[in-house]
Design a protein that fits this description.
Blueprint: E1 4-8, E2 12-14, H1 16-28, E3 32-37, E4 41-45, E5 50-53, E6 55-56, E7 67-70, H2 74-77, H3 83-94, E8 98-102, H4 106-112, E9 119-120, H5 130-137, E10 141-142, E11 147-150, E12 153-156, H6 162-174
Helix pairs in contact: 1-6, 3-4, 4-5
Length: 175
């Protein structure tokens, strides 16, 4: 049976390369990718890309998927406290699924409690270390790397890590 992954994006302002590049890598490896957001319809990326949303996050049946991936971008920055996103991350983790996030989205994982005692990375900038601070405040062991894998959890730091993030997800999902 084909493996399935759920990508969670902001309905407006997801980071195009963080969605399209890993999604393409997974699909090339035979993984069926579905997309969830806060509403159905056509989601718009920060760079103008469009993605059809299959389910709202609260309609998503986490047990149907082998992996869940939270995509960053300015729209995700507005959803870091989204309880449905956090609940989905926690449920996936508790069910032994692969839980992943890129760019600012690892903050969702941190706030859901699943990064406590785990190695993780997140987007940061020389003048903005707020996301790193949030990870540490929630018990994560922050590492300044492109991609960090710790058990079933994969985190990545941003668009420059999108390809490596996708490849890490394929490795995890094929195990």
């Amino acid at each position: 049976m084909a493996k399935k992954a759920l990508f969670v994006i902001a309905f407006r302002g997801f980071k195009d390369p963080e969605y399209f590049i890993p999604k393409g890598i997974l699909e090339s490896a035979g993984v069926k990718v579905f997309t969830a957001s806060t509403e159905k319809g056509t989601a718009l990326g920060d760079d103008g890309g469009q993605a059809e949303v299959d389910f709202t996050i609260d309609e998503s049946k986490i047990s149907d998927f082998d992996a869940i991936a939270f995509v960053g971008g300015p729209g995700m920055s507005l959803n870091l406290d989204n309880e449905n996103f956090q609940k989905a991350a926690k449920e996936a983790f508790e069910k032994g699924k692969i839980v992943s996030a890129i760019c600012i989205a690892p903050v969702v994982l941190a706030k859901s409690g699943i990064l406590k005692g785990r190695k993780a990375t997140v987007w940061s900038a020389p003048m903005n270390k707020q996301a790193v601070k949030i990870l540490k405040e929630n018990g994560a062991d922050y590492e300044e790397k492109k991609v960090v894998e710790d058990g079933s959890v994969v985190t990545a730091c941003g668009p420059s890590a999108a390809e490596d993030f996708g490849k890490a997800l394929v490795r995890k999902i094929k195990d």
